Task: inverse folding
């Protein structure tokens, strides 16, 4: 379908790509929804049916609307109610927790091939609410993935790690990354950095997918921050014949910034590697002015307090 605001075509309709309009059951694209939130512009009237859009805290009105759509057999509404019964998406504000009813609604929606419901059913069989059943888990996951659900594509790709089916794994990880799934992006970036799944090492693609991952989830991807930092540094070495500090083109400040970002996660297993790389990059640049290249000598250089990645003689050179 098309977004009624920006008129862009939405190829795969799921929770990642749309924001549902409970009044008529239509939707707008996620980009328009996020833009309204960022600019603090609230939709008062539905752009499709022109009815008043309920506030997010009007639980009774929202529940009544969604129940009405569910009674008409709308799969998206059945999925929403099922998730509420299972306590997801502030479900306690709408229904008391009821696992049996939640699964019943999800099954009805999954039978209509709703991709969100199919993914939830797969999660239910992964010991989330039901007993582990690999065949049903893979069945529902593949159904959701083949309908274009990025979360299902990423999970299915990672599920093929145990079977050593590199071709299928790469296929689904790439599909999920193409839709901006943060985990899939950082996984693909790591594949290009570490030469996995039969791929050829590519610093450019490692940088590209690591950057995509950070744009989606800056705080939650320390490996992407680490790989992005390494790719920036090594590409700088290759591109400028190891002359790293061409004013205005040095990759050092940005590489240092993302290396420090990776260190913010105390549980990151490669912290020692990051510390060594940080030290090596800083030692390479802090002994001479980033502008005039004058050696520090006896006098210490002044560090840029903005980027923390360049050192200067003084204000004249900065």
Result:
């Amino acid at each position: 379908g098309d977004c009624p605001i920006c008129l862009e075509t939405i190829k795969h309709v799921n929770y990642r790509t749309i924001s549902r309009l409970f009044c008529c059951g239509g939707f707008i694209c996620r980009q328009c929804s996020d833009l309204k939130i960022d600019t603090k512009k609230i939709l008062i009237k539905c752009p499709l049916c022109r009815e008043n859009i309920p506030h997010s805290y009007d639980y009774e009105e929202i529940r009544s609307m969604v129940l009405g759509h569910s009674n008409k057999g709308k799969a998206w509404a059945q999925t929403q109610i099922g998730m509420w019964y299972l306590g997801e998406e502030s479900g306690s504000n709408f229904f008391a927790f009821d696992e049996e009813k939640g699964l019943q609604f999800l099954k009805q929606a999954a039978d209509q091939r709703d991709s969100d419901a199919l993914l939830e059913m797969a999660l239910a069989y992964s010991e989330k609410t039901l007993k582990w059943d690999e065949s049903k888990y893979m069945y529902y996951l593949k159904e959701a993935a083949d309908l274009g659900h990025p979360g299902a594509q990423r999970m299915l790709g990672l599920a093929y790690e145990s079977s050593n089916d590199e071709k299928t794994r790469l296929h689904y990880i790439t599909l999920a990354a193409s839709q901006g799934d943060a985990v899939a992006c950082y996984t693909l970036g790591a594949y290009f950095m570490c030469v996995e799944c039969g791929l050829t090492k590519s610093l450019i693609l490692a940088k590209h997918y690591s950057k995509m991952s950070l744009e989606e989830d800056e705080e939650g991807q320390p490996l992407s921050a680490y790989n992005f930092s390494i790719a920036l540094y090594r590409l700088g070495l290759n591109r400028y014949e190891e002359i790293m500090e061409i004013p205005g083109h040095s990759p050092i400040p940005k590489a240092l910034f993302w290396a420090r970002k990776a260190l913010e996660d105390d549980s990151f297993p490669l912290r020692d590697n990051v510390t060594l790389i940080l030290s090596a990059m800083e030692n390479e640049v802090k002994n001479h002015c980033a502008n005039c290249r004058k050696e520090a000598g006896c006098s210490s250089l002044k560090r840029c307090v903005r980027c923390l990645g360049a050192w200067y003689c003084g204000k004249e050179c900065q």
Observations:
- The chain is about 55% helix and 5% strand.
- The mean pLDDT is 85.
- The beta strands are 18-20, 27-29, 302-303, 311-312.
- Residues 222-239 form the longest helix (18 residues).
